[in-house]
Amino acid sequence: MGIYEEIASNKRRSYLLIFAFLIFITFVGYVVGFFYGSGYFGIGLALVIGIIYFLISYYGGANAILAMTKAKEATKPKYTYLINTVEGLAIAAGLAKPPKVYVIEDSALNAFATGRDPEHSSITVTTGLLEKLTKLELEGVIAHEMSHIKNFDIRVMMLAAVMVGLTVLLSDFLLRSFLWGRGGRSRENNQMTAVFIIVGLALAILAPLVGEAIKLAISRKREYLADASGALLTRYPKGLADALKKIRSDPDPLVDHANKATAHLFISTPFRKSKKSFMKKLFSTHPPIDQRIKKLENM
Question: What is the pTM of this model?
Answer without folding.
Answer: 0.79
